[in-house]
Design a protein that fits this description.
Elements lengths: L2 E6 L7 E6 L8 E8 L14 H9 L3 E5 L12 H20 L1 E11 L1 H10 L26 E5 L5 H6 L2 H10 L7 H6 L12 E6 L8 H10 L7 E5 L12 H14 L1
Parallel strand pairs: 3-4, 3-5, 5-6, 6-7, 7-8
Antiparallel strand pairs: 1-2, 2-4
Pfam family, one: BD-FAE
Keywords: Hydrolase
Protein name: BD-FAE-like domain-containing protein
């Protein structure tokens, strides 16, 4: 039977996550955790309720899931708040590991749309220093941060420069980062998952064939750019529209769940 536990990782009303846990397996340890990061083009009107059905489904299928809320543009997020929250929210798992018997040897992120951007961006956290970004890890209780070991991006906005050029969702990228790249070139570069390539962990760029909200180029250009790295990203096409990926009854979502299980093995 799935259990649910809510925890805060900061003082803001949006700095929280909900841990969904199945009955522990033989041996008592949950083998890995899935961090669910919702989308909504980083805007405050969309929240963790989008990720809740996915986290519950994952737990119903034997996987520990951490449904992460974070500050978005319009409620204290944007640059750098949204990015700080994603890393701090993932790092909170280090505090929860012992009381909930979580094995953090495998921590996989599942991110939809803008959440896919944040998941893949977080996977490059070890390269942020190389990019000139200050230390974004909000370390708690002496832990040195939790690293992702794989990502399943669901129609993720993985090429931020191209998304800004296309003015996706009425300029959502500039809204997130406080202005256009002509005004904040550093922010736009450091917030772009493309800038952290190459990664050394597997990334599945899953994209819906009939997606009209996030163009396929957001995934294909990222996968192409990753091809010369040690662990190239893999493009996975699935049927349906943008929201089929977060419909837990759809073929598109079931493919994502299979990929998560593969990454946790």
């Amino acid at each position: 039977m799935t259990q649910r536990y809510r925890y805060e990782y900061g003082e803001d009303p949006s700095q929280w996550g909900e841990l969904f846990l199945p009955d522990p397996p033989a041996g008592g340890m949950h083998r890995g955790v899935v961090v669910v990061i919702h989308g909504g083009y980083w805007r405050s009107q969309y929240g963790a309720e989008l990720g809740e059905p996915l986290a519950k489904d994952l737990a119903d299928h034997g996987m520990a899931a951490w449904n992460l809320e974070y500050r978005r543009a319009g409620n204290g997020g944007g640059w750098p708040g949204t990015f700080l929250d994603i890393l701090a929210g993932i790092d909170k798992l280090a505090v929860l590991a012992e009381p909930h018997s979580l094995d953090l040897g495998k921590v996989v992120a599942l991110g939809h749309s803008a959440g896919g951007h944040l998941a893949v961006w977080a996977a490059g956290r070890d390269r942020l220093g190389d990019l000139g970004l200050p230390d974004y890890s909000q370390v708690e209780d002496g832990n040195d941060g939790v690293r992702l070991t794989g990502v399943v991006s669901q129609s993720g906005v993985l090429n931020l420069a191209e998304a800004e050029r296309l003015r996706l969702s009425n300029g959502a990228v500039a809204n997130l980062l406080g202005g256009p790249p002509s005004e904040f070139p550093g922010r736009h570069r450091l917030a772009d998952p493309m800038a952290a390539l190459p990664l050394d962990i597997p990334v599945y760029a899953v994209h819906s064939k009939d997606d009209v909200d996030v163009p396929l180029s957001m995934s294909t250009t990222y996968v192409e750019a990753s091809s010369s790295g040690p662990t190239p990203a893999e493009l996975v096409m699935v049927p349906g529209d943008h929201f089929a990926l977060i419909d837990v009854t759809s073929e598109a979502y079931l493919r994502c769940r299979d990929l998560i299980q593969e990454l946790l093995r």
